[in-house]
Amino acid sequence: MREESKSLIIQDNVASAAKTDVGMQRDHNEDNFLVDKNLNLFIVADGMGGHAAGEVASAMAVNVVHETVMEKRLLLEQFNRDEIPQEDVRAARQEILDTMVLAVKNASRKIWEQGQVDAAKRGMGTTLEVLLIAGGYGFVAHVGDSRIYLLRANQVQQITEDHSLVNALIKEGRLRPEDAESFGHKNAVTRAVGVYETVEVDAITFDVLPADQYLLASDGLTGYLDEHEIPPFMEAEQLDDVAEKFVDMANKRGGQDNITTVVVRVIDVEGVAKERCQQLSLRLDALKNIPMFRYLAYNELLKVFAEMTQENAAPSKCIIEEGSTGDDMYVVISGKVRVHSGDTTIAHLGPGDHFGEMSLVDKAPRSASITAVQSTTLLKLTRDDFFEMIRKESNTAKKILWNFLQVLTHRLRQTNLDLKDAKVAAEAEDLTDEILPLE
User: Which domains does the chain have, with CATH numbers?
Assistant: First the structure.
């Protein structure tokens, strides 16, 4: 069994509940959801289009995604039973994530095709939130302004980003967050499944931990919900009660839209949740402390983390050799390494420190050697994986590259100051003889 994922434990201990409601203002429900406990697949879709077209679109999306994911059932079963060799796990994760994206694109094409056949349904579409738990990992595919929240160690993280006009204007600095509620087009989405033949899909994979809880919800719920309110709701022992209370809350606060929620809980049967959360937090904190990743959101950090691999270095193992070419950046998770040039020690690095980031964009020879002083655990990001992430994640790429530019600017400025100081020192008048005359 893989120590990191403990997939066998996680897969058998996933509980869930779901509820949908028409709300207080609508006369029919255009939301749909799916819970497949055998696959640990969970879906929420919020349809749009009128004349019952929204209900058709959301139902089609749920069914098509389910059918497409089912085609990978054998791979998922092997993944869940830890029958995939460790060296092939990463490729298997990517194949599953690619399947999630394909499933949503298939849904978009089929909904669009139905709209071309039936003029009354032309232009129909749906938001779509898909969560799959497999092999000790979570896989998310997302389009629209429905949301998925993660509750971990009593901390709430929204792991999807709204594809809405409001969110786009806030990101562009044209709308203040505090004015979003009164904005006249707050329900307008910038991306939906089925409105066009194809759609851009946000996809992410991450480690699932014991005691994790997930909330998938349409905006009929999230429109009335503040993040800080989620933990108290999720405390109920029975998840059916959790789903019921969320829906009741939305209705009591207005219920202007259809309301759908799916709640998922990973049961901590071994009592290891605290330890596992601390281990993952250490890794994510180490990433966030790296200047080039400093301003990434939680879901963006998860995307970077998913591209990294873990390495163990025994004492005296040379990780980087001075003068060699390399394309890997490392983060120290535990242990200690020595930075040295020949036998001269330059520095020691411990947990949370990093090295080699310039190699991601520069093929210049390494300026120093790095050797493990004691047993050390490292996270490694290769140049190829870094570039692949940059290509796939345009918004994340902008932040990373901007941060990288700031780092380089700071280093250039510091170099200029050092050169200026050196020049001033070199031009200074030598007053040694006047101060200390020869006798």
Answer: 7-271 (3.60.40.10), 277-390 (2.60.120.10)
